[in-house]
Amino acid sequence: VIMDSIGFVYSGSLRCASSLRSTKLSKCALVSKIGGVSVFHGRSSRAQVRRSSGLQMVATTSSSRKTEFNAVEDSEARKGTAQRPFRIALLEGDGAGPEVIKAALKVLAAVEQYTDLHFDVAYSPYGLDSLAESGDLVPESTILLCKEADAVLRGYQGSSRFTPEHSLGQLSAHSILKEKLDLFAQLRPVKMFEPLLAASRLKPEYVEGTDMMIVREIAAGALPASKVAQQSTGSEASSSFSYTKSQVDRIAALAVSIAEQRSGRILNVDKADAMVVSSFWREKLHDYFSKKMGKRQDLTLSDMFVDDFCREVVLEPNSFDVIVTSNLFGDILSEVASGITGSMRLSPSAWLSESGLAVYGPADLYNSSAYPKGSSVPEIKEKQSMSNPIATIRAMSMMLRYSLEEPAAADLIQTALNRVLAEVVPRDAASYFPDRKPVSAEEFAEALSESFAYMHQYEMVCDPEICGD
Questions:
Q1: Band of the pLDDT at 252, cuts 50, 70, 90?
Q2: Mind listing the pLDDT tens digit for each residue in 29-47?
Q3: How many helices (H) and strands (E) does the chain have?
Q4: Residue 299 CB neighbour total at 10 angstroms
Q5: Measured between alpha carbons, how far is 122 from 71 in angstroms, rounded to an integer?
Q6: Strand stretches in 250-321, DSSP E
Q7: 86-93/322-325 β-pairing
Q8: What is the pLDDT of residues 181-207, one digit of tens each?
Q9: CB within 8 Å of 416: residues ≥ 6 apart
């Protein structure tokens, strides 16, 4: 839809904070749906298009990068303004991490340039480079910076899933973040971008339109090694795990809040027919839903056994929306679902705490060499960067939507991605799309920025349900 006076808007919301808008007109919109028809109501707005130079930190060298946030000019001002910019903690990591974070920041600078949003970014050590320099995968200064931030954006860590810190009994850098920041849930979107249909191993008619969000509990259950009772002898080993009512309640609340921004359909995936802990999970999930939802008709909760879901998600991936599941099942199912969109590892993720702080980044914690050959970066003869920034850029879009509550800015990135992917692709995707120009991570980010400039002239409206993530 092309509008010449109304910029990006968020369905059903009075907030137009990050709308693209004309330099001649200062309007945004409230969108309401009556009988499936979008109705636009003009509203005045605080926003004006700014032709600023973008994020100051993008052009700085590594030696001069900020390691702390600027002082807030006006603590009473609304977050995201020049007087009180959003604070973003940047954890580049190692390997491809610095390059994809740099690309993401270039896109964020374009968001800042064409909207009324302002950002203050600061860097902090993270990963194996940090371990080599300071002896800590995640220094305490990094944790403190994260706690001061409105959101955290991180890159990759390590070249192997069995790095020295694991053999020494230490946690991975991300696991340290999870523990120190009390992260309890993961959001894992699985979206099939139309320009990337050829990358899927499934026929286009089966995978087209796939757009689901997996809401995974990550603080309890079977996977946190420090919280699971385990023992092993020469002839037998066991691991026991549990969930409490409060742990199920908080993941249920998150699933509901995500569903409210999407179709309203929630599917619980468990193994209640064979596991007591899964039966408990299902019971408490439905208890929460019944008490909190009352007679609401816009939200539904259904159930499916995990083995059935594994089959159905491959046969009909585009029939699912919000999936809520426990730690172990979520770890497996998110990889199964993401594989439907192709072997390229393009998935973003968010890890959330109850305090509101969240960490965003590629769903893959490690660099590509840590993963099976079928989904790793292809070998090339020339010495070229093969870093793919798409997962990190998508994660930044999630950050804008869920932590900064700027869905219009998130939609801007999603729409630009669809436009750009039809013309150029990162170098590691070139074999799938011989008709498109292969570009570096930096060039891909530049193409997205140029797309923003084009869209600024045509004021496009995009519904979050269509844009994805």
A1: very high
A2: 333 322 222 222 232 233 3
A3: 14, 16
A4: 17
A5: 12
A6: 265-270, 300-305
A7: unpaired
A8: 999 999 999 999 999 998 899 999 999
A9: 107, 448, 451, 452, 455
